[in-house]
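Table S5 (text form). Sequence records supplied for joint modeling of the two-component complex.
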Amino acid sequence: MTAAVAVTLAACSGGHSTSTQPQSQTSGKAVNGGTVNVAEAASVTPNWIFPFSPIANFSVANISDLQQLLYRPLYWFGGHNDQPTNDPGLSVARQPTYSTDGKTVTIKIKPWKWSNGEAVNAKDVVFWLNMSKAEAAQWAGTVPGAYPDNIKSYKATSADTVQLTMDKKYSSNWLLYNEFSQITPMPMAWDVTSASAAAGSGGCLTSVSKCPAVWKFLTAQSKDQSTYATSKIWGVVDGPWKLKSYNSDGHYSIVPNTAYSGSPKPKLDQVNFLPFTTDTAEFNVLKSGNQIDLGYVPPQDLPTKPAGSDLPKNNPAGSNYDLAAAYRWSINYFPINFNNPTVGPTFKQLYVRQALEQTLDQPVDVQKALRGYGLVNFGPVPAKPVNKWMSPAAKQGTPYPFDVNKAKQLLTSHGWTETNGVMTCTKPGSGSNQCGPDVKSGAKMEFNLDYASGTPSLDQEMQQYKSDASKAGIVLNVTSKPFDSVTGESVPCTASQKICKWEMGNWGGGWIYAPDYLPTGESLFATGAGSNSGSYSDAKMDKLINTTLTSSDMNAFYAFEDYTAQQLPVIFQANVYDVFATSTKVGGVNYNPLQTLVPEYWYRTK
Amino acid sequence: MGGYLLRRAGQALIVLFLVTVIVFVLLHLLPGGAAHAILGPRATPAQIATFNHENGYDLPLPVQYLHWLGQLLRGDLGYSYHLNQSVGSLIVSRLGKTIVLNLIALIISVAIAIPIGVTQAVRRNGIFDYAATGIGFVFYSTPSFFLGLLLVLWLSVNTGLFPAEAPQSNSIWEILAQPRAMVLPVLTLVLLQVSLFTRYMRSAVMDNLILDYVRTARAKGADENRVLYRHVLRNSLIPMVTILGLSLPILLGGSLVIEQVFNFPGMGLLFYQEAQVQDYPVLLGITLIVGVATVVGSLAADIGYAILDPRVRYV
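The corresponding structure-token record, covering 921 residues in total, follows.
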């Protein structure tokens, strides 16, 4: 999924947003009306309209490029700025308030209307919560032990107010960013079990046990793409847009929802989304005419970036377009298998992980493989865009900069001796100058590193890594495999399992924090977490992560962040950023790190 | 003739069955598996197990194959869990467009190739023959994606004469209503096909020109035009029947490369996209269509050949 998040984000600034990000530059005068054409990411098209998605459809394309344009979540993240934060102005609900013990949360809904005239109210939130309780297994946002398990009870206390009681006190940031952000009010028109049934007759609002039948009906409707644009169900929207047409090949158009209650109101008459099979096809069309207003320049078509700028000196898209650099709210890393029966014990030694990080030359990768369009990545918080989550220590830079000599010294000072170019454990044991617990005498510093094929920059990076690591006596047997093979093998496992033979797996995409926007580590680094691919387990890390979930103190967050950067539960690697092209005849566009779209800010110029 | 047809039809069915078995096994041996491709890196092992169970991917391969075959016999090509549609509706929505694109290219190619091939044969080893052979060789040996990109660069990006993207509509009439957008993909296909067809035509005409019946016709006083167009051309077109029959798979299956370069949402592109996510039902559906087209195409070519040249029936 992460690899598929490439390039169609476009978000905007101004209006009710909390941001201060300036709007995109355009010299023309703003006009009302007109159409804007947006290029979708290559080979990625929305295919699921129901904003209660199973994991197979839990993609940026579905959520940001389709669902959220029509159905606004309770708390909307992204907005008219370059920050990965909540935009209260674009959200359906006011900021939540908390009881003094922190366990009771009150959410008040703004006086918005659905397009059929009904009020967006507390019932719609309860409907969603009931559905997520009943169909937790089908909802990709479910986190066992957390959402929705940690909501003990909930009720509508008035027409516009919902009260939730949590099982314990949580960090208000974490609740907002990772739990309430995933709730989308659903209209009564959806609480049905057939297209002709009366709104609310499905009974999911009043009884959780009736939700499965409603879910089944809505899921079947979502599978019927031919009816998306004409459906009575999906036609009830509270977002600024409604669907005008939808084609399963990826072409779809949205038009303003004239009953939209929020602000700003759309200025355009229509936004068309255009699918492309490859980024080459997209770039050909971008360059050859005026069919695309918002597109992107594929990495391979970017000239080397000059120092001191985020963008190339010459615009490869031509004079009809302005370029913009867009940093994703993501980190890039690859997991190592701590439970591999052979090399797992070696990976469990912190000094080994430090040596592995210190032999990965990220600055060179950025300059050469990514041709300047990237940044060094060394912890769980993205360094760019500049954000409030970066700790003071992280702002100082990586704790383990590239240094082959230091890496070599680390290994030799821990009982490893270079033999025929490979570091070999000659001093087994647990002492400070020995190889470490469970590392056997004769163990070699030789690892199999599988990485995703098809990306020339990753090829280059891994070859560079192999070469640099060998200078420290670390042998990396790098093998390129299909992306799916790498993600398929890089899974949590126990040493006795057959699938636990993998050693290092690099799918090239790391992790994007969306729609769990807070860069906490419960999904990635906590013991037993589903996406803890390398089965990393550390009691202190678990404790620090838990603290970030329950404390709103930024120092607690910084402690987790700094410990992660220092402990290296994964090997961090350089992260790429996108370069977008915006027609000079379109204004109000900027690019959001969460890849959310806000076309209501866009306008054409003359 | 009847026995010949029955024999060939029986062989075709066996080939088709083997094709489905081989493709089914090969697809399912691909590393990674559909679950990882569809669910992405964020999927937990439990979610992957659920997906595999729901889609029957945890069953033994022969059982999965029989299940698929059973569905197929009921006319059900399966459901694409990536595109959320039935495979049948996906294929129907793409097939027409692919046929239109390739049929136009095929007709133009044949119309151009026949006179060029005949002229080359008649004026063999002359300037026209050398020039046509040279140009044809260049186009034939040029990779299709490269030729397509060159045409985009010259005729779209630099000069703006034609759009770089093929028509995007689902309606065939709307596609036909955008002839400018069809020029580059059709031109690419034509340039590639003409060189191939011309070679066949040239060889066939040359082969016929030295046969006894031509000498007899000339001896009987027939003028050269009559010899060429009434006798040689008719016989020389017979090998073209084979080529046209073998074009059927491309006509239905699409050209993967050309559809990619010009963003043409046809069958080739569908196959390419779904191969990336190991969407087995779609891949099997398209493979089946192409397999049927290959078998039917070659059968049609054989039958056509047998009708045109009775000697074949007794081989």
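Note: Chain B touches chain A through 51 residues (CB under 8 Å).
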